[in-house]
Amino acid sequence: MSTWKISGVLFCLLLASILTAQQPPGGVVVIQGATVIPGTGSPVIRNAVIVIEGGRIRDVGPRNDVKVPNNAQTIDARGKWVIPGLIDAHVHFSQSGGLYTRPDIVDLRKWRSYEKEMEWIKGRLPYTLGSYIASGITGVVDCGGPMWNFDMRDIASQTKKAPRVAVAGPLISTMLPPTTASDDPDIVKPNSPAQARDMVRRQLDRKPDFIKLWWVREPGDNLDQQVAIMSAAIDEAKSHGVRVAVHATELETAKAALHAGADILVHSVSDRLVDTEFINLVKNRDIPYITTLFVEDGYRMVLNQQVALNDIEQKLGDPEVIATWSELAKIPPGEIPGGVPRIPAAPKRPVAYDNLMLLDSAGVRIVAGTDAGNIGTLHGPSLHRELEMMNAAGMRPMDVIVAATRNAAVVMGKQNDVGTLEKGKYADLVILDADPLADIKNTRKIFKVMKAGEFQ
Q1: Angle at 144 between CA 188 and CA 41, to 5 degrees
Q2: Which residues pair with 30 in a beta bridge?
């Protein structure tokens, strides 16, 4: 029986909005004349030809080096740029990005219950999936949520206008917010190493792409006890051949996670500058380091009532989500348990920026991810904000694109199929109207999006 507990009416609406699994495209499609940025970090290919057959790239290279089949459907892309389909390596489909989605941050359950929020999110899933595709994002990684995450992955795989999805189940955590309790929780807290192992095993039948740990320290926590519990979860997952991703924003807990065998860090270290030990740990084990620079700004924008959207967020952000943000001004602050958190202005140069540049210069595998679904971070277009912040921190546009394509495909576990424009890979790509290497903001200037050889 499905673990997705959703009303019959909503489920019927959801199914009605979903297209049947797309058939392999017929014939041969050729995109020619564009400048191709392959996503590998290698130089661009000018006046390029991409030959696509059966949903995959049959050939790609300069026009004079690639034979164009006589019967091909030809797309004239002169004056355009082509990049691999973007991948957001950190999202949460169980969060909407709206005002009511994190009662553990701001408790507005009196105005919309957590159960109602979850029901709304599920019914809105087709729109959310489509927002990713429209934003040029052909792959996403859901970094943990309820067990219905696995049903969402199945639905996305059968939906034409949807990205490819990799998922984890419930976050195995060092803390348990009381405001998000439900019959299908997104967070579970083990109190012993044995419980941690059991929580890992509960997910294995659903074939998670990875196990996610949420490592947060609160005053009075015993770090050694946390290390024992989290190490047991990591060991159990890896004994079954499943990778482990860890939320650890403090340098000390990030190091502990890596020493215990974690495979992915899903956030920037933001409490202090990384040191040589940490750099060597991530470098020597080729640990993907996911940025999530924008998510705090998203909270700041909404909770401080200073909303300012860029053009692609206005165009492709879910209008129903955006509409919730203005409702905060109508709620008496005194009626909100604990009040509304006031987030201080961002520092001129956040520590996370300096850490990003230290790790990037050391050759660490940097990956773009937004933590979309948190309040103020929209599913889909927010990735473009993330790319711009990575560039503002000091990364070159070429390296930012690699972080959002090839490197993010590694987090998905699909690097053999997606992430670069190379022979044999799926034809997941974005045609742009302007050069993203001249200005990373040009990734917003989307002309066409293709997934598996079909324009979306």
Answers
A1: 150
A2: 51, 74
HEC string for 343-357: CCCCCCCCHHHHHHH
At residue 134, the pLDDT reads 98
> What token pair was written down for 201?
């095993």
* CA–CA dist 138, 157 (Å, integer): 12
Q: What does pTM read for this prediction?
A: 0.93
Would you state the pLDDT for residue 351? 97
Determine contact, residues 142/151, Cβ cutoff 8 Å: no
d(C-alpha 456, C-alpha 440), whole Å:
23
CA–CA distances in Å: residue 98 to residues 156, 193, 344: 21, 35, 20
pLDDT value, residue 219: 87
pLDDT score, position 22: 37
Is the CB of residue 374 less than 8 Å from the CB of residue 92?
Answer: yes
Mean pLDDT for the chain overall: 93
- Report, in this order, helix, strand and coil percent for the chain, each rounded to 5: 35, 15, 45
Question: What pLDDT does 25 receive?
Answer: 46
The whole-angstrom separation of Cα 267 and Cα 283 is: 16
- What burial letters (b/e) apply to 315-327, b meaning 16+ CB within 10 Å? ebbbeebbebbee
Adjacency order of strands within the sheet including 81-84: 35-36, 81-84, 429-432, 446-451, 454-455
Q: Which segments of the chain have a pLDDT < 50?
A: 1-25
- What lies within 8 Å, CB to CB, of 362 at 6+ separation is 279, 283
Quick one: tokens of 63? 């026009």
Alpha-carbon dihedral of residues 285, 290, 293, 296, nearest 10 degrees? -110
